[in-house]
Design goal:
Layout lengths: L1 H20 L4 E5 L4 E5 L1 E7 L2 E13 L3 E11 L4 E12 L4 E10 L4 E11 L4 E10 L4 E4 L3 E5 L2 E5 L1 E5 L4 E11 L3 E11 L4 E12 L5 E4 L3 E4 L4 E10 L3 E11 L4 E12 L4 E11 L4 E13 L4 E13 L10 E13 L2 E11 L4 E5 L3 E4 L2 E4 L2 E7 L2 E16 L5 E14 L2 E18 L5 E17 L2 E8 L3 E5 L24 H5 L19
Antiparallel strand pairs: 1-2, 2-4, 3-4, 4-5, 5-6, 6-7, 7-8, 8-9, 9-10, 9-11, 10-13, 11-12, 12-14, 13-14, 14-15, 15-16, 16-17, 16-18, 17-19, 18-19, 19-20, 20-21, 21-22, 22-23, 23-24, 24-25, 25-26, 26-27, 26-28, 27-30, 28-29, 29-31, 30-31, 31-32, 32-33, 33-34, 34-35, 34-36
């Protein structure tokens, strides 16, 4: 009997060695850990006075809702910890897969710490990092030292953040960048849901189109709906080739490439010192058209003054740059156009501003006042040079009138006129075609000496401080001088004379009209559920 017992012990010892060192798979059930182990080799070892299980080759550890695969692993029985290395793979029962070089798993807290070449694949996205702590119960992971989320054609990267597989949401912090085929987004913090396709931004945010031609920035953050390709930003701006469009609220439709701004809107030209303010704005990228309407005001910075222009609507059209001009934009103003400068005011139905040559054209009953003079024509072109008023060209039925000290009106009319300015005051006037004038002569003592009515082909007038210093009549001048007692009321006015001083715009009427002060837009609030 004793011999048989010794023989049994020897055979049992050899069988144990066979289990530990053979190439066959062995399984070990641990009731306390509720885990099943299998590997090519299984050893019982002591680490820091704690009994452990070492698994080598084709390691498979099965837990309640997932399995762990690796080249090798160690199970700490007392602490209920698993350390695995080499082609680590966690497969969750819902199909999510995480791979890494190293894994440290705490059974009690169900926290998996994965390091180096971590790849998390779910049904909606793939996540990459080198440092990932994942709560297997909550299905929520935290990453540091850089991470990347790939979802469709969207690629999200940041320094650190978290990802939840339960609600399919991710939070990215510090040096956040989202890149796709259309644009690149950079921000401080980004919340993204892979199901709703909604991204919410916080802090400074910059969006740049992949062609580099358009940039949107905001310091307040906003939202982007990737499924609808629409974004909404607070206190933001979008840059085009020629303009920067600002607004309290800016919405961008990536599909149609239309940007809409609301509240305290400003359209600022990169060249030409032109700013257009209003309540609402819109930019159509494909057409290169920007418009501002609702309480609008255009401001043009001059050398020693500011020119203000109000209207119902402004529309700017970008064109290809010409030689010497990177900004080749045409700006239209429609309805109720009014102009104010300290010594120059006017009004018209429409206005066209050409940025390339700094020319402003007015149409639709244009009328202007320069100091004491009233100027009208079928159309008027105002030219600026070196940020100063340089020339005014009045085309067809041009007319200039001014009131003297006795209440009489000096008048000058012709087919076309050109008024040249020096220091923003009329320096000389050229009248070409069917020129006709009425001038009243006043003695030094203030008494009326008479009135001169003259007609000719061309008139040249020199002026200084709004006073005529010389007149030259050319091409068959014909004139009549009327003594005071022979001046009739009918003779005092030329055919198209109409004194319209009551229509002269005031500063309050023009300047206080604009700046986008009407806050009637619906206030935008970020969706906290993202």
């Amino acid at each position: 009997m004793a011999r048989s017992s010794g023989t049994f012990r020897r055979l049992y010892g050899k069988f144990l060695l066979f289990l530990l060192f053979s190439g066959y798979t062995v399984a070990y059930a641990q009731e306390k850990a509720k885990a099943n182990f299998s590997a090519k080799q299984l050893e019982s070892i002591i680490i820091d006075e704690e009994p452990c299980r070492r698994l080598i080759g084709d390691v498979m550890i099965t837990l309640e809702k997932f399995t762990i695969q690796a080249d090798r692993a160690v199970y700490y029985s007392q602490k209920r910890l698993i350390s695995a290395q080499g082609k680590v793979k966690i497969v969750h029962e819902d199909g999510a897969v995480i791979t890494a070089d190293h894994l440290f798993y705490e059974e009690d807290s169900q926290l998996a710490k994965l390091r180096r070449h971590v790849v998390y694949k779910s049904d909606t996205a793939t996540f990459y990092t080198d440092y990932f702590d994942y709560d297997m119960e909550a299905k929520q992971g935290y990453f540091g030292h850089g991470g990347k989320l790939v979802e469709g054609d969207n690629v999200l990267t940041s320094e650190y953040g978290q990802y939840s597989d339960l609600d399919k949401s991710a939070v990215f912090h510090q040096n956040v960048e989202l890149v796709n085929q259309a644009y690149t987004i950079q921000c401080d913090t980004l919340y993204y849901n892979t199901v709703t396709k909604i991204a919410r931004f916080e802090g400074f945010t910059k969006i740049t189109s992949q062609d580099g031609k358009h940039t949107l920035t905001t310091h307040e953050g906003g939202e982007y709906d990737a499924s609808r390709q629409q974004s909404t930003f607070a206190q933001s701006q979008v840059e085009t080739k020629a303009y920067t469009l600002y607004g309290d609220l800016l919405r961008a439709d990536q599909a149609t490439q239309v940007y809409t701004a609301t509240g305290h809107v400003k359209l600022v030209a990169k060249e030409g010192d032109v700013i257009i303010a209003g309540d609402y704005g819109q930019y159509e990228k494909e057409k290169g058209i920007a418009q501002v309407h609702g309480n609008t005001l255009m401001t043009k910075i001059l050398a020693e003054d500011i020119l203000y222009l109000s209207a119902d609507t402004f529309v700017a059209t970008e064109k290809e740059p010409t030689e010497g001009h990177t900004d080749n934009t045409t700006l239209h103003a429609y309805a109720n156009v009014k102009v104010y400068k300290e010594d120059f005011q006017g009004k018209a139905d429409t206005m066209i501003y050409q940025s390339a040559d700094a020319t402003i054209a007015f149409h639709g009953d244009p009328i202007f006042w320069s100091n004491k003079s009233q100027l009208t024509a079928d159309s008027v072109h105002v030219l600026f040079r070196d940020k100063s008023l340089h020339e005014m060209r009045m085309n067809t039925r041009a007319f200039i009138a001014s009131e003297d000290a006795l209440g009489n009106y000096n008048q000058l009319q012709g087919r076309n006129m050109v008024a040249s300015f020096k220091k923003d005051k009329i320096d000389c006037i050229e009248v070409d075609g069917n020129a006709e004038s009425i001038f009243f002569f006043i003695e030094d003592d203030g008494q009326l000496k008479g009135m001169n009515h003259l007609q000719c082909g061309h008139i040249h007038i020199d002026m200084e401080e709004e006073t005529i210093t010389g007149i030259t009549f050319r091409h068959k001048p014909l004139g009549i001088f009327y003594p005071p007692q022979e001046i009739s009321e009918e003779a005092k006015a030329l055919k198209h004379f109409n004194w319209r001083i009551s229509e002269r715009p005031t500063r309050q009427e023009v300047v206080e009209h604009g700046y986008g002060t009407r806050e009637t837009y619906k206030e935008f609030k970020l969706d906290q559920k993202y």
